[in-house]
């Protein structure tokens, strides 16, 4: 298709494969995995759809120009040479985000300043007036990425990070990022085909993302907006069509999604956020201490949670992790239990052998997503039953 162009979706470390699968499922072409990013091709409508539907993307940027750059003067000259009227008018505002990984350019703020000067001077020289900078809510957000001597100039089609889904108004001490929660759920193989539980649900992010995956609800349907809606070529009618067709692909969910937390404030926050996401018919949250519970549902239970860790809560690590193992072993047969932790030494206290360990990052902390398979009856009995048949 002639109107296709290259885009780059940014993501978290370890989610590149998930994101490329999501992009292919949505219909992207030329999908190529990088480190913390995936590049792909599509048209304007696909850019709208990617922002609306992708669960594991943090931003979607549209590269518009790339060039080799020697120093600050060279950067200024090449930015100045670009035709900025194609993207921006003097009455609009703009902001610049810069990432540098280079020996020549060591300060991203300085690069942003030089880029701003070049754009402003170009407008002033041609129009006699200039657009203003608005870092909070600009009409156009420009992304500058310098790696060694290569400079890429892109437009940010998302605006604020796509993990800000729009449903979460109340949070607890250290809420899990929505993109991280969604990625962990997808890595755990959650597909909505059984009951789900988060036994330490905090502000309810894992529960909400689990319900959205189960019902195939577009990840960012509750957001107030995207940066592309302010672009000069924004097609509101096309965007509405994409929203409608994405909502038509939602599906019914016939199982239970259950959350526990022992803090009454967390239960209230969860319920508020779940209500904001219009998912309260699918999710129940109760005030319960997981260590005093047992499985209340029939059939397989898929459990995925983010236990509190030393960085944010003062807990006795050894006892806490051994209680997780005991509770799973004694009270949760027929359960695939997944949890993420950045306290790698604490895993040995669980007292169970994980069947999977996946390296991920929780903000900047190296973590592991681990899986414990709790069988109905013992593993030995399961094996004997199989051999006797």
Automatic annotation (TrEMBL):
The entry's keywords: Methyltransferase, RNA-binding, Transferase
Record has Transferase as a keyword: yes
Keyword Transferase (UniProt): yes
GO molecular function per UniProt: RNA binding; rRNA (guanine-N2-)-methyltransferase activity; rRNA (guanine-N7-)-methyltransferase activity
Entry-linked Pfam families: RlmL_1st, THUMP, UPF0020
Every THUMP domain range: 46-157
InterPro entries the UniProt entry points to: RlmKL-like_Mtase, RlmL_1st, SAM-dependent_MTases_sf, THUMP_dom
Record protein name field: Putative N6-adenine-specific DNA methylase
Organism, as annotated: Maribacter litoralis
Lineage, uppermost ranks: Bacteria, Pseudomonadati, Bacteroidota, Flavobacteriia, Flavobacteriales
């Amino acid at each position: 298709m002639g109107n296709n162009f290259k885009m780059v979706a940014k993501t978290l470390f370890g989610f590149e494969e998930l994101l490329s699968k999501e992009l292919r499922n949505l219909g992207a072409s030329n999908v190529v995995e990088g480190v913390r990013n995936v590049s792909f091709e599509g048209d304007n409508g696909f850019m709208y759809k990617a922002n609306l539907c992708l669960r594991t993307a943090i931003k979607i940027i549209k590269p518009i120009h790339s060039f080799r750059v020697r120093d600050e003067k060279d950067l200024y000259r090449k930015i100045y040479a670009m035709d900025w009227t194609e993207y921006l008018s003097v009455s609009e505002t703009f902001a610049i985000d810069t990432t540098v990984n280079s020996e020549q350019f060591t300060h991203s703020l300085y690069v942003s300043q030089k880029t701003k000067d070049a754009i402003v001077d170009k407008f002033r020289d041609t129009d006699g007036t200039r657009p203003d900078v608005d870092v909070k809510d600009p009409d156009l957000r420009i992304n500058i990425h310098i790696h060694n001597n290569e400079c890429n100039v892109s437009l940010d089609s998302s605006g604020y990070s796509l993990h800000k889904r729009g449903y979460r108004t109340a949070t607890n001490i250290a809420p899990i990022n929505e993109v991280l929660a969604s990625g962990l759920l997808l890595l755990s193989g959650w597909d909505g085909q059984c009951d789900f539980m988060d036994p330490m649900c905090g502000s309810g992010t894992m529960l909400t993302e689990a319900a959205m995956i189960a019902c195939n609800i577009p990840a960012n349907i509750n957001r107030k907006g995207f940066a592309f809606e302010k672009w000069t070529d924004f097609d509101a009618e096309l965007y509405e069509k994409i929203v409608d067709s994405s909502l038509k692909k939602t599906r019914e969910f016939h199982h239970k999604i259950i959350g526990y937390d022992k803090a009454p404030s967390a239960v209230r926050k969860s319920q508020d956020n779940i209500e904001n996401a219009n998912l309260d018919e699918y999710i129940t949250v109760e005030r319960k201490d997981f260590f005093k519970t047992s499985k209340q549902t029939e059939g397989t239970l898929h459990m995925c949670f983010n236990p509190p860790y030393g960085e944010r809560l003062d807990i006795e690590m050894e006892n806490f992790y051994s209680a997780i193992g005991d509770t799973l072993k004694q009270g949760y047969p027929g359960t695939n239990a997944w949890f993420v932790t950045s306290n790698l030494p604490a895993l040995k206290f669980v007292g169970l052998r994980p069947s999977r360990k996946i390296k991920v990052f929780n903000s900047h902390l190296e973590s592991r997503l681990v899986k414990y398979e709790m069988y109905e009856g013992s593993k030995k009995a399961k094996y004997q039953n199989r051999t006797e048949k």
